[in-house]
Amino acid sequence: MTTTPVAANAGLEVAAQSWPIAGAFRIARGAKTEARVILVTLRRGGAVGRGEAVPYARYEETVDGVTAAIETVRGALADGLDRAGLQSRLPPGAARNAVDCALWDLEAKLAGRRAWEMAGLARLDPVKTAFTLSLDTPSQMADAARAAAGRPLLKLKIGDADDLDKVEAVRGAAPKTRLIVDANEALDIDTLNRLAPDFARLGVKMIEQPLPAAADEALVDYRGEVPLCADESLHSRAELDHCARLYHAINIKLDKTGGLTEALALRDAARAKGLMIMAGCMVATSLSMAPALLIAQGAEVVDLDGPLLLAEDRVPGLSILGSLIEPPSVELWG
Q1: Domains of the chain: residue spans and CATH
Q2: What are the counts of helices (DSSP H) followed by strands (DSSP E) for the chain?
């Protein structure tokens, strides 16, 4: 892990960090070998709160851009800006996520309570996460699936219309494991309708973001049986009505919603519309996953495997035994 301090004064510290990925992480849009994150640290009244976020190029975010956005609220934070006020000061995205989660952590530390208590949860239970298989050749994905066949849920990346053989290879290598297919916007509606029966035959439980977000209105013509989950198409409650017409589930990621505050509100609003919840993540450390565990409570799908994809994790990190993630320690977050 490498850290580059960006700015530190008036109770706010911002640092850019790079965490190596174990091997490479490949999706339809490309591959990466490191997770670049922004770490925000807030200090008030002798307490320290931290939040982590991942600038994502798909959403036109960069480390410099996210850092600059955080700097716009430095003065307000020094004057006591809280989570409620933050929602109108920064838009959904990585910058607000880092600050929002740091504020949750800080508030919990100052109050001597756990963040999940402040969120109205009776308790925070362990959850079982999916494990992601990067896009690769059928034989290599089969090898990866075979090594992870004991996990309860695998999510495999596909990249085009010809990737059915990869799904078949994974199913053959892990015949008893539940499967999710994530296309990352790589298909069109005709291809989706053609592949859907085969996905159902192979026991795929969900298809995540099959079409480009800008083209997902075509999903009104979807004829398959496998439920669809919105990812790139949904960031916050602003897109919920649109997605509720086209999808059966939504993937809530704190880096999209702009933090835990909006994520909790989005979860409740989605539940009211009868949508299934997937608690998702970018590739990042345990500090990013810890607040997302609140969204994972009761979610139909949990995909918080970011630390499992890294060559090393933050210390202290989450305790993860196989696919079971334990609640975070106070030292980590919340």
Answers
A1: 2-112 (3.30.390.10), 127-325 (3.20.20.120)
A2: 12, 15
- Catalytic residue from among 109, 155, 166, 253: 253
Two tokens, residue 164: 């059915």
Q: Is 270 exposed, middle or buried (0-12, 13-18, 19+ CB in 10 A)?
A: buried
pLDDT more than 90, % of the chain = 91
Question: What pLDDT digit, counting tens, does each position of 265-288 carry?
Answer: 999 999 999 999 999 999 999 999
Which candidate in 157, 176, 256, 273 is catalytic?
157
Cα separation, 229 vs 232, in Å, equals 10
Give the chain's largest Cα–Cα span: 59
Unique residue bearing structure tokens 């695998």: 154
The question of whether 157 is a catalytic residue gets the answer yes
Among left, alpha and beta (phi > 0; psi -120 to 50; other), residue 11 is left
Segments of the chain assigned E as strands: 2-9, 12-27, 30-44, 47-53, 127-128, 131-133, 153-157, 178-182, 204-208, 228-230, 249-252, 276-279, 301-302, 320-321, 324-325
For the stretch 176-194, pLDDT in tens is 999 999 999 999 999 999 9
- Cα–Cα distance for residue pair 104/90, rounded to 1 Å: 16
Please report, to the nearest 10 degrees, the dihedral formed by the alpha carbons of residues 36, 299, 248, 191 taken in order.
50
